[in-house]
Every structure is written in structure tokens, then in C-alpha cells.
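Next up, sample data:
>
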Amino acid sequence: MSRSLAARRLTGVPLTACLLVGGCRPAAGPPENPLAAFDGSGGRWVDLSHSFGPTTIYWPTDTAGFQHTELAYGVTEAGWFYSSYAFASAEHGGTHLDAPSHFAEGRRTADQVPLSSLIAPASVVDVSAKATPDYQLSVADLQAWEAEHGRIADGSVLLVRTGWSERWSDRTAYLGTSATGPAAVAELHFPGIGPDAAQWLVENRTVVAVGIDTPSIDYGQSSNFESHVILYAQNVAGFENVAKLGELPATGAAVVALPMKIENGSGGPLRIVAYLPAPPATSSMARTARLCSQRPD
């Protein structure tokens, strides 16, 4: 097989797409690269997760926090290095999944949440400019967003940015209290999704999950967690303590949110990331440059 034929099979495009007089230029309409999301030519990834560690924030009643215990660390007698740890955590701390069963009996558990609820387009509603410690996302907020960006897409993940993730390093500022234990719950102050907005979503739109950059989808002063109940009864999943939502556009990003798959769990630790596709012209040029770098001499 000739080197040119091998190159065509390797890259999936004609070699002439890269070889033009005077150098290498973008070819008209190169075929889409199915790996563009992973090789950097099609866009970029944003990690929306907080790391788990000694300072991870949990609900005030979960006082044990994240436990990471060394089991082994160092060079073995055989001469190779080995490390191993045990960890323990409540399901609902740090960046985590709320399975619908967390507040709705008989609804999906963590291991039953389908991938279609975890990997989906994102609609990002940004209320950070007006969010206060007791702010609740309203129906008016959602309608104003749609007036500017279009209808919230069916099958999408609704992400609410309040700006609270910027307070993550200060537990008191993030939760609204430094107290712990059951009595501390009444002292919580942070934004959330208002029950009216939650009801409007389940009656008028078909989102598969909601996420927020605060400790709870209900605001801190909620005593009955009504938004949890409304949304989770419809098998809408929840993502809490999400980070870096300010890096996402209102539309156009996609979310991949993969939690620990705990059998019969009500939630679990979550690694959530977003993919931001590059503008078409940019991604086309990046793909062509990558293909040109692979051409044979």
C-alpha cells in the first residue's frame, strides 16, 4: 500500500485536502472528525466539579465530611512503588448527584438514572448579577431567558448560575453559617430554584436534569424542600455544588455528568464536565491543521 493511500485511510480525508500550492490551507467542507471532541480540534472541555478533600463542603448535619485513609504508600520490598487509600463519604456532599429517589419514593435511584439524563445539551440561566443569599429562581427569570435565547430545549439539562461557587473556599460565606448539626439547617442562606419555577418547568418544559452552583436546588431557608419534591417526582435528576458555570454560554454547550453508580443510592459523588464546541470556522481550521501535521513527507 502506498504511503498516500495509507494516509487517506488514517485521516479519513483525501490527502489533497491538505496539500495545496504554497502550503497547507483549510479545504472546503472537510468531513467531520468523530474524535474532534477529544483531540482538541472541535472545542474544549470545562471541569464543573469541585475536588473532594478535607475542605469539601457537606450539609451541616453531615459532620464526618470526606474521609480519605491511607492503606499503603511507598516502595515495596520488591522494589516498586505502591499506594492505596480507602474513602468514605455521605452521598450528598461536594459536587454530587441527587437521584430522584432522594425526595420521591419509587422514583429512580442513582444506578437507575439513564445516561440520557446525564449526557445532554445544556441551557444555562445566569442570575448571578441579582442573586442574594435568599434568592429564588423565578418563572419570570426563565421566561426572560427564553425571550433572549429561545425555548429551553426538550431533553436538556438546565443549569442555574448564581455565582455562589466563587464562595466555595469560604464555608461560612457559601452556606450562610459556620454552624454544624441539625440546628444549623435553619441558619442556611444561599440561592436556589423557586417552587413556582420548578412547577413551571415540569408543566411546560421537558428537562432531564437541573444543576446549580449552591448546596441545594432549594434555597437555604427552605423548610420543606418543595422544588426537590416537584422535580424529583417527575424523575428529573439534580446536580448540586456545581462549579465554573460562568465559563459556559447560555446555549451550545453539552454536559457529561457521571456519578458513582451506587446500587439503590439516593445520590453520589459526581464528576461533571461540559463540552464547548468551537465556532465552525475555528474547528474546521483546527481539524485541517491537525490533518496536515499527519501528512506523509
